[in-house]
Amino acid sequence: MRVAAYRGEEVIPLTTALGNFAAEGLDVEVSEFASSSRAMEALLGGSADVVSGGYDHAIRLAAEGRKAKSFMVLCVRSPLALVASPKADVSGQSSTLTALR
């Protein structure tokens, strides 16, 4: 399996270095790219089978009607952000997130 990962992404290189892919019987070839956008280009161009990158790319592909599957989240902390309109007055406000579904 050919995996495209962006430089700075830690899970794929660490998993490879620890031998976890091999322990599961997976023959993985990792290629590093300068950004997750470049890694996604490798997938779309056919030089990678899997991309490790931001799932915003998977959302964009779906919006464009392209076929791809997001099948695993590789982070412990959520990469989500709460985003407010520039017109919203959120100064001094607080919020609590009790669950992600």
Which terms summarize this structure?
single chain; 101 residues; alpha/beta; D-Maltodextrin-Binding Protein, domain 2; three-stranded parallel sheet
Mean pLDDT: 79
Structural class category: alpha/beta
Q: CATH superfamily, called what?
A: Periplasmic binding protein-like II
Assign a percent range to the helix content.
Answer: 25-40%
Largest sheet: 3 strands, parallel
**Roughly how many Å apart are the termini?**
31 Å
Low-confidence stretches: none
The backbone outline, from C-alpha atoms, is: extended
CATH topology call: D-Maltodextrin-Binding Protein, domain 2
* Beta-strand percentage range: 5-15%
Strand segment tally: 3
Major sheet: arrangement of strands? 2-1-3
What's the architecture in CATH terms? Answer: 3-Layer(aba) Sandwich
Number of helices, counting only DSSP H or I runs of 4 residues or more: 4
The ordered H/E elements are EHHEHEH
Rg over CA atoms, rounded to whole Å, is 17 Å
CATH level 1 class label: Alpha Beta
